[in-house]
């Protein structure tokens, strides 16, 4: 009886301690949230700014007028509601959704007002940042998981793929892409009468006003600008352990950058085939999108390893994906340079996980040559289009394979190269010069796929897949 009493007493004491820990965690979360309540009232101000903007800037379209008035009113409502802890979660996420809508509203309504375009996209970006980036993501459960101790570097890895140093290249590239896409959208929406094109004559105008472009329900360049905006915001979001604390965000960022990025790259590749023209600025946006991919994939691998280990430890994958969590491992990131370190230490840490083997650089060069060869060798018809398309695909695969975790992806170029060798014999428009050229380049590309290239970092259980 005494033993049972002592056991019950100990069990009750454990429950009380657990309850105390839970209450202290809630208090800590509320104290942290209290420091950022100024963001709510700033958003209220932006809401009234939006309500009055149509009458201040002279919007012409009724849909834009009422859209901004309604969006501003919703921002005021949600921001005031989110002051209460009871409504903080849905209030701040609702603000973020209104901010996302504001990115697309000028495109959906085909606004003719530059002021409306700038106003909506800028206010939309700011309210997203002030609702879920600056004060951290809403959700008590998420904050409680983030407060738990755990590894800063994924187990078995030699670096942390979620540091600000690692995300800096993606933010810079996305910002550059946003500037270009916004300029292209300004032409499509009629804000400016002409557009810069240094190499292809009227190529940019032909592409932006083509039937393919007009089939989009909104400005496709504006859609690209909105995508770059969301990429920048998602790259900013989360702390240095977001590979385990925000798996859903890492996945969303990957989807936005890689599948959608590859799709946009393919669309640009098809421009000379479908439209009959090249667009310099479109090529630049495709290049920027391509350069983002090698810097993105390592964080996804780390996140996938975390989810796999979390399930092995008996946790719910659904909860781990949406809430985040920790692992029964402790380590501290002592490799990433801290604030105040020499500037020369920052730049190498931005490119950990990405290397430039000479084999892949040569593959890029041969891919570019294939894209140019129809003009130089006089290739015509389907054979010329084929070299354009597959040359660009070879460049795309080679650049993505510069990410060490995706190095095995270079073998896709073996398939593309085999087709490059065979295509001049199967498609119309290829002369003897094209057949010889494609045979030599195709064989060289296949040989260049054999060496793995330099691998400088370690990736835990993923190392065995880097072949």
Give a description of the structure.
By secondary structure, the chain is mostly helical. Among the domains are: 155-349, de novo design (two linked rop proteins), CATH 1.20.1440.130; 358-465. The chain has 21 helices and no strands. The protein has helices at residues 2-34, 38-57, 62-81, 88-108, 114-133, 140-146, 164-188, 203-208, 211-214, 220-236, 242-245, 247-257, 259-269, 271-274, 280-312, 317-323, 343-350, 358-377, 381-400, 412-426, 432-448. α3 (62-81) runs parallel beside α5. The radius of gyration is 26 Å and the shape is flat. The model is unreliable at 1-18 (pLDDT under 50).
Annotation, overall tally of beta strands: 0
The unreliable regions are 1-18
Rg, rounded, reads 26 Å
**Helical segment tally?**
21
Percent of residues in β-strands: under 5%
Which architecture of the domain at 155-349 per CATH? Up-down Bundle
Quaternary state of this entry equals single chain
CATH fold type of the domain at 155-349 = de novo design (two linked rop proteins)
SS-derived structural category = mainly alpha
Report the sheet with the most strands, covering strand number, pairing sense and barrel closure.
none
Shape: flat
């Amino acid at each position: 009886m005494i033993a049972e009493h002592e056991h019950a007493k100990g069990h009750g004491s454990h429950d009380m301690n657990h309850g105390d820990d839970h209450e202290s965690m809630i208090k800590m979360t509320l104290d942290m949230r209290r420091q950022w309540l100024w963001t709510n009232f700033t958003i209220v101000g932006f809401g009234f700014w939006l309500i009055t903007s149509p009458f201040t800037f002279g919007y012409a379209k009724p849909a834009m007028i009422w859209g901004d008035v309604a969006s501003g009113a919703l921002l005021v409502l949600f921001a005031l509601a989110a002051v209460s802890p009871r409504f903080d979660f849905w209030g701040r996420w609702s603000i973020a959704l209104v901010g996302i809508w504001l990115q697309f509203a000028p495109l959906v309504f085909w606004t003719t007002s530059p002021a409306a375009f700038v106003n909506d996209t800028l206010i939309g970006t700011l309210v997203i940042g002030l609702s879920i980036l600056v004060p951290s993501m809403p959700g008590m459960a998420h904050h409680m998981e983030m407060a738990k101790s755990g590894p800063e570097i994924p187990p078995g890895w030699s670096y942390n793929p979620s540091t600000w140093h690692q995300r800096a290249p993606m933010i810079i590239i996305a910002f550059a892409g946003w500037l270009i896409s916004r300029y292209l959208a300004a032409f499509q929406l009629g804000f400016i009468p002409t557009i810069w094109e240094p190499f292809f004559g009227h190529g940019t105008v032909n592409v932006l006003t083509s039937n393919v472009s007009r089939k989009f329900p909104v400005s496709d360049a504006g859609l690209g600008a909105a995508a770059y905006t969301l990429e920048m915001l998602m790259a900013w979001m989360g702390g240095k352990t977001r590979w385990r604390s925000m798996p859903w965000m890492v996945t969303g960022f990957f989807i936005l950058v890689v599948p959608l990025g590859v799709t946009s790259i393919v669309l640009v590749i098809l421009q000379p085939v479908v439209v009959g023209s090249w667009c310099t600025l479109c090529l630049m946006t495709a290049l920027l999108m391509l350069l983002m991919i090698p810097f993105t994939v390592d964080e996804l691998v780390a996140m996938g390893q975390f989810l796999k280990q979390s399930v092995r430890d008996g946790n719910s994958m659904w909860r781990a994906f949406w809430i985040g969590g920790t692992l029964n491992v402790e380590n501290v990131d002592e490799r990433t340079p801290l604030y105040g370190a020499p500037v020369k230490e920052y730049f190498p840490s931005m490119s950990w996980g990405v290397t430039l083997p000479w084999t892949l650089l040569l593959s890029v060069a041969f891919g570019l040559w294939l894209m140019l060869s129809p003009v130089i060798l006089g290739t015509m018809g389907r054979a010329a289009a084929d070299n354009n398309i597959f040359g660009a695909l070879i460049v795309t695969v080679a650049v993505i394979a510069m990410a060490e975790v995706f190095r095995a992806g270079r073998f896709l170029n073996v398939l593309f190269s085999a087709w490059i060798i065979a295509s001049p014999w199967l498609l119309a428009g290829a002369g003897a010069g094209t057949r010889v050229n494609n045979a030599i380049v195709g064989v060289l590309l296949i040989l260049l796929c054999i060496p793995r290239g330099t691998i400088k970092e370690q990736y835990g259980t993923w190392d065995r897949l880097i072949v």
